[in-house]
Amino acid sequence: QVQLVESGGGLVQPGGSLRLSCAASGRIFSLNGMGWYRQAPGKQREWVAQSISGDNAKYVDSVTGRFTISGENAKKTVYLQMNALKPEDTAVYYCRTPWGVWGQGTQGTVSS
């Protein structure tokens, strides 16, 4: 059984950066297809980024050029590097396996 644990959230000023981590445990042999989602207060959860293979990834338009998804297979860990953060990026961030296992989420808050 695969479990996911996110970390790295916190409070940052607009224009700052956060690096989120998603550590997987259990029977997972590839990080391809892992995704990051977020849910802002009062809004539905939305897809943010997904690794495809190697360095290939796709992003929602609102974060393209600012966020980067990456992974370390040896550590079974997926990262989300978030730069040039905006107040509208404030949300609980979740990672998800391609077959639908979710982590518990980590809060990222962008505020001055």
Percent helix range: under 10%
Number of helices: 0
Strands across the major sheet, in which order? Answer: 2-10-9-4-5-6
Order of helices and strands: EEEEEEEEEE
Low-confidence stretches: none
Class from helix and strand fractions: mainly beta
Cα radius of gyration in angstroms: 13 Å
DSSP summary, beta strand count = 10
Mean pLDDT: 95
Q: How much β-strand is present in the residues? A: over 45%
Biggest sheet details: 6 strands, mixed
What form results from the Cα inertia axes? globular
Distance between the termini: 41 Å
Structure overview:
There is one protein chain. The chain has no helices and 10 strands. It is mainly beta. Strand 5 and strand 6 (56-59) form a beta hairpin. The protein is globular and about 40 Å long. The mean pLDDT is 95.
Task: For this entry, give a set of tags.
globular; six-stranded mixed sheet; 112 residues; mainly beta
List the helices and strands and how they pair.
Blueprint: E1 3-7, E2 10-12, E3 18-25, E4 35-39, E5 46-53, E6 56-59, E7 67-72, E8 77-82, E9 91-96, E10 106-110
Parallel strand pairs: 2-10
Antiparallel strand pairs: 1-3, 3-8, 4-5, 4-9, 5-6, 7-8, 9-10
Provide a concise account of the structure shown.
By secondary structure, this protein is mainly beta. The chain has strands at residues 3-7, 10-12, 18-25, 35-39, 46-53, 56-59, 67-72, 77-82, 91-96, 106-110. It is 0% helix and 50% strand.
